[in-house]
Amino acid sequence: MFSPFSVTGCSLELLRTGERGIVTFCKSQYETILKKLISIGVTPGATITLQQKFSSLIIKIRNTSLALNIESICAIYVRIIDS
């Protein structure tokens, strides 16, 4: 009756440490957050790896590791890349 399914897209905050995703879009009510994300290269099509989740949220994008606040992380939506 029901067929199995998997989550292929989600907010970056839901990824586990080491998982990668391709940015599908960014959504925030604050324009400053969106401008910050664009300035560091978080744009649709960019590949992001969540390197560290606790004490600080650290992402890797284009061979650069960056610490982001939770508001920025929540604004990023990705399509999960199968490992």
Automatic annotation (TrEMBL):
<dbReference type="InterPro" id="IPR007167">
    <property type="entry name" value="Fe-transptr_FeoA-like"/>
</dbReference>
<dbReference type="InterPro" id="IPR008988">
    <property type="entry name" value="Transcriptional_repressor_C"/>
</dbReference>
<protein>
    <submittedName>
        <fullName>Ferrous iron transport protein A</fullName>
    </submittedName>
</protein>
<keyword id="KW-0408">Iron</keyword>
<feature type="domain" description="Ferrous iron transporter FeoA-like">
    <location>
        <begin position="10"/>
        <end position="80"/>
    </location>
</feature>
<dbReference type="InterPro" id="IPR038157">
    <property type="entry name" value="FeoA_core_dom"/>
</dbReference>
<dbReference type="Pfam" id="PF04023">
    <property type="entry name" value="FeoA"/>
</dbReference>
